[in-house]
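Tip: read the tokens left to right.
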């Protein structure tokens, strides 16, 4: 394969960062195609930790061109801070491009995110409060500022003159402070000085690179169940993390996504509200949470823990066309006495073979489970499948059978080298 998409198959936090980092080293180009600074992962290099939120993961490799593509909503302030953070840590040789069609996330989007969450009260989504939803709203309403506009000061001024009074009216309806048009313009012109040289027509750059056979990695952000269309609406983000959205978010043709690698944590986690048929209560959940450090990276909220949910994963595999997965954090399940897998969804005692779209129906879903023995030992030193304890091998084989996919990579600890590679999709 000369191009590969990485897709989180659960509710985010699957451990994509480690796999993206592994494949970024083999790529010529790494592309972020949706979301904004709601995403985040950290990379360790020579003992230094880099927290990336908007920058693609090839940024520490001077050989790689990193592209922030059309479907991204990028806060210029956050982007500049990330770039300056790299320079402060001595990383000066990097290649970054941002699409002229990418959307500028404005300060009023952040204010509106807070105002909306506040207005929703106990029905709130639990957003990351980075303005992501309101920014995508403006894009759909054709009111957004795009990165290409920063290169045309007169047009930018006209756009702000049109949009800012509308935003201020909306904000005042929530009792929030208005924004000053001129101050926003001046700030964007400052941003343009720093970012202007990297704003380009990325679809034509990517198309030429694809035609020349360059190796392109599409790194996913968030997870499939947070997809605006196919996730657990309304507890979702405002873009689509599915690999099927990549062509529309990058300007590449369909065939440019040669393969998709799904990233699956060996159990399930969720933050915030919403039905969760495989949820575990009590001691086993606590043990998994502690061993897997399952607390929100920013909020530190304890994540809800569940067993692997096969109908949920089968659903995502079917809508995304996933045949290969990386199984993450398998070592964590060594802490429990026995492991369950949710194999069927039922409503009123009858099996269902679809993912309920509406919350009231999803709330009625009950899970049927199978139970497998745990291995109760440390697997972090294993580098070959055959070195894993039999019960652990059996867990992997059971997943392959139930899902009809192959488990190509197995992560046995957070360490960079601690991955069992059974079949590589993206060759050197
Ligand atoms: P938003 O994307 O900030 O609007 O938040 C909407 C929902 O998506 C919230 O439940 C967030 O916690 C969740 N979310 C957004 N980005 C991520 C991510 O990268 N990992 C996990 N959850 C996320």
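Filled-in amino acids:
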């Amino acid at each position: 394969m000369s191009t590969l998409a990485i897709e989180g198959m659960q509710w985010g936090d699957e451990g994509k960062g480690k796999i993206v980092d592994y494949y970024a080293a083999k790529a010529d180009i790494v592309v972020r195609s949706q979301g904004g600074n709601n995403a985040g992962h950290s990379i360790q290099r020579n003992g230094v930790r880099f927290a990336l939120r908007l920058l693609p993961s090839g940024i520490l490799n001077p050989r790689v061109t990193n592209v922030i593509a059309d479907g991204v909503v990028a806060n210029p302030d956050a982007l500049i801070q990330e770039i300056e953070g790299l320079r402060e840590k001595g990383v000066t040789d990097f290649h970054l491009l941002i699409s002229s069609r990418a959307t500028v996330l404005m300060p009023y989007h952040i204010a509106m995110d807070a105002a909306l969450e506040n207005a929703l009260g106990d029905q709130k989504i639990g957003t990351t409060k980075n303005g992501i939803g309101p920014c995508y709203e403006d894009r759909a309403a054709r009111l957004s500022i795009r990165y290409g506009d920063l290169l045309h000061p007169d047009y930018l001024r006209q756009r702000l003159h049109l949009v800012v009074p509308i935003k201020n009216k909306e904000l005042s309806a929530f009792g929030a402070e208005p924004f000053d048009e001129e101050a926003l313009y001046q700030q964007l012109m400052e941003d343009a000085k720093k970012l202007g040289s990297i704003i380009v027509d990325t679809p034509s750059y990517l198309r030429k690179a694809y035609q020349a056979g360059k190796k392109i990695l599409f790194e996913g952000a968030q997870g499939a169940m947070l997809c605006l269309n196919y996730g657990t609406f309304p507890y979702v983000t405002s873009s689509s993390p599915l690999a099927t959205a990549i062509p529309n978010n990058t300007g590449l043709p369909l065939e440019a996504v040669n393969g998709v690698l799904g990233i699956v944590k060996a159990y399930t986690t969720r933050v915030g509200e919403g039905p969760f048929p495989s949820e575990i209560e009590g001691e086993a959940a606590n043990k998994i949470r502690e061993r897997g450090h399952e607390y929100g990276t920013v909020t530190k909220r304890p994540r809800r823990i569940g067993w692997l949910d096969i109908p949920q994963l089968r659903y995502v595999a079917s809508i995304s066309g996933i045949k290969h997965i990386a199984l993450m954090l398998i070592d964590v399940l060594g802490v429990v006495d026995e492991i369950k897998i949710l194999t069927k969804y039922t409503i009123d005692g009858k099996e269902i073979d679809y993912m309920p779209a509406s919350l009231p129906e999803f709330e009625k879903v009950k899970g049927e489970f199978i139970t497998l023995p745990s291995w109760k030992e440390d697997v972090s030193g294993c580098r070959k499948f055959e070195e894993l304890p039999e019960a652990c091998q059996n867990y992997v084989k059971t997943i392959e059978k139930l899902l009809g996919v192959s488990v190509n990579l197995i992560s046995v600890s957070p360490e960079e080298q601690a991955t069992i590679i059974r079949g590589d999709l993206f060759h050197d």
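Residues 228 and 238 are 5 Å apart (CA to CA). The longest strand covers residues 338-347.
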